[in-house]
Amino acid sequence: MGVGVRKASAWISLSGFLLLLLQAIAQQPAAQAEDVVVKVVHHKIGDYLADAKGRSLYLFTNDTKNTPTCYGACAQNWPPLLVRGKPVAGEGFGVMDDFYDGRLLGTAQRTDGSTQVTFSGWPLYYFAGDKDPGDMKGQGVGGVWFLITPRGEPIKEGVAAQQPAGAQTDALLAQLKAEGQAVYARVCAPCHGQEGEGAGGVKLAGNSQLGNVRNVIGQIVGGGQEMPAFGRLLSDREIAAVATYIRNSWGNQFGLITEEEVKAAR
Predict the structure, then answer these.
(1) Which pLDDT value is given to residue 67?
(2) Domain ranges of the chain
(3) Which ranges carry the Cytochrome c domain (predicted)?
């Protein structure tokens, strides 16, 4: 009888210990599952940062240190690198013969409450046009998006040589369209409608006249019979962006309009 009681007591003690152990494990933060690994990729244009799978990471020169400014349509084309735990320095950091300091990794809070990974203060982004590891189609887009070195600097050399002309054009179109959507919502949608349906102005959806570059720029800059002029209100970049947006939305496929074309047409 005494032996049975001792065995039962021992079993209860063991069960209690196991229960406490399981509770302790459950309370541990899932740090590894939430961590984001940033590594160094070696390439002929220079060493640059990528995630653990090799997807290229970019900085946005319109950002300020530790302050992301890419939201809305911009963030759809340039998704931020988010983290719930802490960013981890992966392969390529701390190599003694070419030392890169993983301590430059950090985080910044976004306005939606999420946490974005930074490097040397620069918020890090993906490019939606990069489909495979090693793609760098976002490099140099708009003169504001660049791969970032493991020393926290943008790679600006050799941009054009790394991409086929078509890839560069597609990337610039995507960037201008994203910027143009914001401009359109602010100054155009009240008359032309959120979907270009022509709420109180000309219908833009499926409008073949948008194929004429000079006319599109002229209407935006100088206005028309019922349309106000925006030449003094919008920069060349904003005009190029909104023109590109309306020419490539709602069934329209007329290609991009560049800042240089706007400047030449003013």
Answers:
(1) 95
(2) 32-161, 165-265
(3) 175-250
Token pair of 159, please?
């941009």
Report the relative pairing of strands 36-41 and 58-60 from DSSP bridges. Answer: unpaired
Task: Report the CATH number of the 165-265 domain.
Answer: 1.10.760.10
Its pTM surpasses 0.85: no
Q: What is the pLDDT of residues 151-164, one digit of tens each?
A: 999 998 755 445 55
**Residue among 87, 58, 56 at smallest CA distance from 70:** 58
Residue 167: closest CA among 157, 175, 155, 156? 175
pLDDT digits (tens, 9 = 90+) for 39-55: 999 888 889 999 999 99
Residue (of 72, 65, 66, 58) closest to 112 by Cα position: 72
CA distance 30 to 85: 8
Amino acid letter, residue 33: A
